[in-house]
Design a protein that fits this description.
The structure holds 2 protein chains of 2 kinds. Chain A is mainly beta. Chain A contains no helices and 11 strands. Chain B is 0% helix and 59% strand. In chain B, strands 2, 4, 5, 9, 10 and 11 form a 6-stranded mixed β-sheet that branches. Chain B has a 5-stranded antiparallel β-sheet with strand order 1-3-8-7-6, with no helix packed on it. In chain B, strand 7 and strand 8 form a beta hairpin. Chain B is globular. Classes of the chains: A mainly beta, B mainly beta.
């Protein structure tokens, strides 16, 4: 089974702090994604990466950066946290895998999420 | 750009059938996914359509009409545990670099009642 883990389930930070959210997948997937999920707005893509050291902006990259130094790990960084970044953050990965799941290598597998509160 | 519409909420009775609709407008359409998300949990993959027609998978089926920009998820023999949010996601390409991008709808919150 695909496993995507995130470093924290719940996190509380103060305005202006630098925040690191870590995501690790164990399926050797090429693609990794960071989303935020807010009521009424659904899942919105922040950044994604299709290879080590590669990154692409998603739909709402402002205020965020990412790092992918190793294939299995994708980090989301809030350089200076603000209250409007209070949200649920979800990491996902996709790529060829041993299981021939319908949808193929574009099926995204999600981590459990990190609920971040910025005070 | 992408535009995906789903009803916000639906209520159905245990044992019944419910259909959750999704309409989309997108360039470079290359497939549609359905995910289930229980409260406080991660979305999990349910089904995928890339060609027109019905894909059946146990109690769940998904239908796609590319010409109409329309899909639905059909849930049969509803159970209480089916109470969840159902997310429609459209895959589009081309995509810079590798892989394909998914754009998610806001989700339909389904409540199953006795």
């Amino acid at each position: 089974d695909v496993k995507v883990t995130q470093s924290s389930r719940y996190l509380v930070k103060r305005t202006g702090e630098k925040v690191f959210l870590e995501c690790v997948q164990d399926m050797d997937h090429e693609n990794m994604f960071w989303y935020r999920q807010d009521p009424g707005l659904g899942l919105r893509l922040i950044y994604f990466s299709y290879d080590v050291k590669m990154k692409e902006k998603g739909d709402i990259p402002e205020g965020y950066s990412v790092s992918r130094e190793k294939k299995e790990r994708f980090s989301l960084i809030l350089e200076s946290a603000s209250t409007n970044q209070t949200s649920m953050y979800l990491c996902a990965s996709s790529g060829p895998s041993k299981s021939s799941l319908a949808g193929g290598e574009d099926t995204q597998y999600f981590g459990p999420g990190t609920r971040l509160t910025v005070l | 750009g992408q535009n995906i519409d789903q009803p916000t909420e639906m209520t159905a009775t245990e044992g019944a059938i419910v259909q959750i609709n999704c309409t989309y407008q997108t360039s470079g359409f290359n497939g549609l996914f359905w995910y289930q998300q229980h409260a406080g949990e991660a979305p999990t993959f349910l089904s995928y359509n890339v060609l027109d027609g019905l894909e059946e998978k146990g109690r769940f089926s998904s239908f796609l009409s590319r010409s109409k920009g329309y899909s639905y998820l059909l849930l049969k023999e509803l159970q209480m545990k089916d109470s969840a949010s159902y997310l429609c996601a459209v895959r589009s390409w081309p995509f810079t670099g590798g892989g394909n991008k998914l754009t998610f709808g806001t989700g339909t919150q389904l409540k199953v009642e006795l």
